[in-house]
Amino acid sequence: MSASSLLRSLPPPIPKLAATRTSDPADWQNSWQSRRDGYYEQHQYFPIVISEPTTQHVLYAALCPGSVHAAHGAYDDLQFVVDRLRRARPDVAIHVRGDSGFGVPSMYKICEKNRLTYTFGISANKRLQAMAQSLLDRAVAEYERTGVKQRLFAHFAYQAGSVPRLICRGQFTRGLSNVS
């Protein structure tokens, strides 16, 4: 599908681009570009996919070695997609999202350079966990009061590299907590 036909099919006004990686086990360890991954303990590929989640169009997919970091080369892949979308519609506003594997300075820079809004996960650290503790405490208290799963959000001012602000999600249900 061409970029112009995709843009005609997108709901206005802001297309979203989702960058994802997925573990794809290799059939045998000598497969081209497969690598042993310590986390998954298997030989695998680690393809990148950039899609538009509302319409479920896949805009870009590439096979990558199984041991690369999630963000490895993703800025070039994102630039490739953005260039083609903007060629068809120069004024289009684009929002990019990805998990914490994509939450790295090179991805922030490419988004800011191209005037893209973005939402990336960020790996938790002790400072972020301390900042989010009151949110999690509220989620636990509300769950105990209602018995209903709680998902609360908060906004934090935060300056680490080029990440000036964070949105934090605190969840609690049946004894399980999660802050992201």
State the end-to-end distance.
35 Å
Tally of extended strands? 11
Give the number of helices: 4
Question: What oligomeric state best describes the polypeptide chains here?
Answer: single chain
Structural category is: alpha+beta
Order of helices and strands: HEEEEEEHEHEHEEE
Task: Note down, in words, how this protein is organized.
The chain is globular. The chain has 180 residues and is of the alpha+beta class. Helices cover 29% and strands 33% of the residues. Helix 3 links the parallel strand 7 and strand 8 (117-120). The longest helix has 21 residues, at 126-146. The strands form 3 sheets. A 5-stranded mixed beta sheet has the order 6-5-1-7-8, with helices on one face. The chain has a 3-stranded antiparallel beta sheet with strand order 2-4-3, with no helix packed on it. It contains 4 helices and 11 strands.
List the helices and strands and how they pair.
Blueprint: H1 3-9, E1 16-21, E2 24-25, E3 35-37, E4 42-45, E5 48-52, E6 57-62, H2 74-88, E7 95-98, H3 105-113, E8 117-120, H4 126-146, E9 150-160, E10 163-173, E11 176-179
Parallel strand pairs: 1-7, 7-8
Antiparallel strand pairs: 1-5, 2-4, 3-4, 5-6, 9-10, 10-11
Q: What features would you highlight for this structure?
A:
about 180 residues, alpha+beta, 5-stranded mixed β-sheet, 3-stranded antiparallel β-sheet, 11 strands, about 30% helix
In short:
This protein is an alpha+beta fold. The chain contains four helices and eleven strands; from the N terminus they run αββββββαβαβαβββ. The chain has helices at residues 3-9, 74-88, 105-113, 126-146; strands at residues 16-21, 24-25, 35-37, 42-45, 48-52, 57-62, 95-98, 117-120, 150-160, 163-173, 176-179.
